[in-house]
Amino acid sequence: MAKKFKKGVWLHNIPKLGGKQGIDRFVKRYADAGFDLLVPCVKNANGLVDYHSRIAAVNPASREWDPLEYMTAQAKQAGIKVHAWFCVNLEGDSGKLLAEHPEYAALTPDGKRARTGAGWFTCLARPEARNYQVRIMGEVAKNYDVDGIHLDYIRTGDNVCFCKICSAMFKKVAGVNFKESRWWQREIPGWYNWRIGNVTKIVAGVSKQCKKYKKELSAAVYHAFPYTMITQSQDFPGWCREGYLDMVAPMTYTPDPYMMQAYTRGHIANMEGKTELWEGLIVGYHGSKSKSLLEEVKLAKKLGAHGAMIFEHHGISDALLKQLARI
Ligand SMILES: [Zn+2]
């Protein structure tokens, strides 16, 4: 039988907690509910960070004091772990990377900058863009008393990049321009493996930093593996095999417990090595109520996952938390 089923929570927007007292309440809330892990977002989708970085641009709300430093101290006292969450390949207009190097923006096949939500994807074929992300995660691993680093947006973006460098690579391996290509020409190993390799270089780089400073490394990944290798250049079982990750949380965001089970079985089958699988489950997706979330958390436990990551704090009511604490 599996060991204790673990639980963690993602937290969007640390400033929204409302300062130190808000952090105190946040930490106590989940420690009291028997949770094992807090994953606060420290690099936001706009590229700004909520810690005192020497490299990245700091969110104005976090310049007077360092919320990450404060939260890690409180969490340590409460006996709950913290992984600092980075939206890795997302940069906003106010973020430092694209402000200084707009040429690193990832491009769609139409030559437009590739956007998702609040941010822009960057071209991960550029060592400078990859290294920037590794450096900012490395400074947190080195300078903060966190238990680990958490990777999100650790992917190229769907159907990007087609900058000069990437377009030339596609032409080289496929023999045609992307726009003239058919779908089967896009699944050639020389193309998608190259894109995956660029993402994996970031994972490998951060893993090295984490091992150096004795931190864990976890990742939120797309749930529909293996197709996400083609669409998002994301090979989380490969990262597990290489020993880069300690925990992986596929974002299995479906309101249908039947589908959720199908995905979870696939994740378990694809897991290798010592990496833990925590199913990422969402509150209120597509109108689902907490009933389906609770059912999915129970199913994750029953199917043999090591834990569940809940998305996200601001949507979890006290009544729901009480029920989650019992699983
Ligand atoms: Zn590119």
Widest beta sheet: strand line-up: 1-2-3-6-7-8-9-10
Number of helices in the DSSP assignment = 11
- Range of strand content: 15-25%
Question: In sequence order, what are the helices and strands, one letter per element?
Answer: EHEHEHEEHEHHEHHEHEHEH
Structural class: alpha/beta
CATH fold group? TIM Barrel
State the helical fraction.
40-55%
Number of strands: 10
Average predicted confidence as pLDDT: 94
CATH superfamily: Glycosidases
CATH class: Alpha Beta
The low-confidence parts are: none
How many strands, which pairing sense, and closed or not: the largest β-sheet?
Answer: 8 strands, parallel, barrel
**Ligand species:** zinc ion
In CATH, the architecture is Alpha-Beta Barrel
Beginning-to-end CA distance, first to last residue: 15 Å
Total domains: 1
Integer-rounded radius of gyration: 19 Å
Shape: globular
What's this model, at a glance?
By secondary structure, the protein is α/β, with parallel strands linked by helices.
What descriptive keywords fit this protein?
single chain, 327 residues, alpha/beta, TIM Barrel, eight-stranded parallel β-barrel, two-stranded antiparallel ribbon, 11 helices, 10 strands, globular, binds zinc ion
